[in-house]
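Quick one, T. Sequence first:
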Amino acid sequence: MVSDVVKKETGFILLGAVILSVLMELVFLFLGFWDYTVLLGNILSTAVCTLSFFLMGLTVQKAVGLGADAARRKMKSSHSLRYLMIIAAVVLGAVLPWFNIIAVLIPLFFNRITVPIRSAIHRRRHPEEAAQSAVYDEDDAYDGMYEEDEEEYEEEDPE
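Structure tokens:
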């Protein structure tokens, strides 16, 4: 079952991608480069990126109940598969004549634009959670800071 949070966040990502897609289409139109391949490339890339975000949310949802090592493996394998999916979309966009490769590549960055906007909106609506989260994040940053360094030294030590 998909959690409400995953559905809600994916919906926001999709909304942001659609808004940015319309803007991109308008730029292509204004510059005189618009044709159906721009629209199809945009749809392909936006769909793949939204699906990738949704699959990441599902993976996080499933990884929450696992142990640290199992969760890490699950997240790494999901990350690899999602990137392969994105690479496949780019290859299709480059090879097939139905897609404008620029219109395939640009929407790959829409999530990078939409996610910080979503975070800013959430912080603005819920400042008490943002302040609490900032303190928690700062403490967490120091908690495990040196553990990774210690593990590296243990692995390098031949004794």
